[in-house]
Design a protein that fits this description.
globular; mainly alpha; transmembrane helix; Amino acid permease; about 500 residues
Length: about 500
């Protein structure tokens, strides 16, 4: 009898070694959700957004995108608590819409984060030049790529812990920034009372009307990309039915506080006509709007502090990007949509082959920035639209999931987490994402002469996605899954 028990335990261990580990705690899930939406888009890009559309226009754009992201998160949360898998929306699209759509979404998302990994390690080297201008960039890039790989290779818990602390640094910085900013507005820091005078400048608070607001929708949306990481992490959450809803409920209010309050503070303190608002990027941290506000408040070494914070944001994005793309690739391999070798799991529950392959591709994409700048820019632009395509996939999948759930005769009140305002949420999110995608470079069409090169560079990601979708559909002869079969497919799984 004892021998039988030993054999059974050994068999269970072997089975367990083939699966990822559910080691992400509630605090990890919360910070993954929050940290995913806070990065260089907030610390650097908000300045140019305010300069383009005025402080009021920026608030409208970021507020609208924030609401859209909230609906997307609730849609993803409903599906993730029902079926917590690492493939997330790629798997949901395959089960509730069409396997071809799931295939295209999965490869689209993997490509997006593999290229983003290259972007982040390139940015980290530029940031380090602030302190060590004489050290070759390739050394910093190799060092940070190794660190990002190691955090993902050790265990899912090491990723969760690193993201928790990276996100905490960003959260504390924003809270301090808002507090310092409010004191500066009322003249407690920085001398003079500012009040609301910068909101009443000529053509403020909205500069350029609707088209200016539309032009920064893409920037605002890009800033929020990463919030969907909580769906990818659902497959490794200790208690997805409890932890995912908790993380999602907090996302909207954090977005509202961090983005809206930060933009309001920047717009109140710095005139939107200030040329310095256009200069915030990793090449020039000194003119980040956050740095400018801290300096106006009289805080010494503001540039060094923000440089360190932005470095944590870059490393956070790189670590999360490698995590997300690895899990997506592993999940597609399990679905038969990627090579079987990528299904390999080590004893710590890490999809090691998928991790190594993604790291190599990210490294190669980075090398194009050194040896072929034009190729790098094409890769960057091709991945730029991927996040919005993924969001559209989430909206479509949730709409079909809810319809399928009702068609199967089940009561929606029995769902562990139920998204509010269905079907308004996914429909609104779908419509807004479509507007952002199509309007990404409307200037190329509205100009006196159509800018064909600009159109191609801006929209290259869209035909690549459609070609992947329809190529798989034609090759595999896939069909849209009937509603009454969707939930049954989950039961079989």
């Amino acid at each position: 009898m004892e021998a039988v028990d030993i054999n059974r335990n050994e068999e269970e261990k072997k089975q367990d070694d083939k699966h990822i580990k559910r080691h992400l705690k509630a605090r990890h899930m919360t910070m993954i959700a929050i940290g995913g939406s806070i990065g260089t888009g907030l610390f650097l890009a908000t300045g140019s957004s305010i300069q383009t559309a005025g402080p009021g226009g920026a608030l409208i754009a970021y507020g609208a995108i924030g609401i859209m992201v909230y609906f997307l998160m609730t849609s993803l949360g409903e599906m993730a608590t029902f079926m917590p898998v690492s493939g997330s929306f790629s798997t949901y699209a395959s089960h509730y819409v069409d396997p071809a759509l799931g295939f295209a979404l999965g490869w689209n998302y993997w490509f997006n984060w593999a290229v983003t990994l290259a972007v982040e390690i390139a940015a980290s080297a530029i940031i380090m030049k602030f302190w060590f201008p004489d050290v070759p960039s390739i050394i910093w890039s190799a060092l940070f790529l190794g660190l990002i790989f190691l955090l993902n290779f050790l265990s899912v818990k090491s990723y969760g812990e690193s993201e928790y602390w990276f996100a905490l640094v960003k959260v504390v910085t924003i809270i301090v920034f808002i507090g310092v900013g409010l004191l500066t507005i009322f003249g407690i820091f920085g001398g003079e009372y500012i009040g609301f005078k910068n909101f009443t400048l000529e053509e403020a608070p909205v500069n350029g009307g609707f088209l200016s607001v539309l032009s920064i929708f893409f920037i605002a949306g890009f800033s929020f990309q990463g919030t969907e990481l909580v769906g990818i992490a659902a497959g490794e959450s200790e208690n997805p039915q409890k932890n995912i809803p908790k993380a999602i409920r907090q996302v909207f209010w954090r977005i509202l506080l961090f983005y809206i309050a930060a933009i309001a503070v920047i717009g109140l303190i710095i005139p939107y006509t200030s040329p310095s608002l256009l200069g915030g990027d990793v090449d020039n941290i000194a003119v980040s709007p956050f740095t400018l506000v801290f300096e106006k408040a009289g805080i010494a070494a503001a540039a060094s502090v923000m440089n360190a914070v932005i470095l944590t944001s870059v490393l956070s994005a790189g670590t999360s990007g490698l995590y997300a793309s690895t899990r997506m690739l592993w999940s597609m391999a399990n679905e038969g949509q990627a090579p079987k070798a990528l299904r390999k799991i080590n004893r710590r529950g890490i999809p090691v082959n998928a991790l190594v392959l993604t790291t190599i591709i990210g490294g190669l994409a980075f090398l194009t920035s050194i040896f072929g700048d034009q190729m790098y820019m094409w890769l960057l632009n091709a991945s730029g639209m991927s996040g919005f395509i993924a969001w559209i996939g989430i909206a479509i999948s949730h709409y079909r999931f809810r319809k399928a759930y009702v068609a199967s005769g089940q009561d929606i009140n029995e769902l562990a987490y139920k998204a509010k305002w269905f079907p308004l949420g996914p429909v609104l999110a779908f419509g807004m994402c479509l507007i952002v995608i199509l309007g990404q470079n409307y200037q190329a069409v509205l100009s006196d002469k159509i800018d064909w090169y600009g159109l191609t560079v801006s929209y290259i990601g869209l035909p690549l996605f459609l070609a992947t979708w329809w190529g798989y559909k034609i090759a595999k002869k896939t069909k849209v899954v009937p509603l009454h079969e969707c939930i049954q497919r989950d039961d079989k799984k």
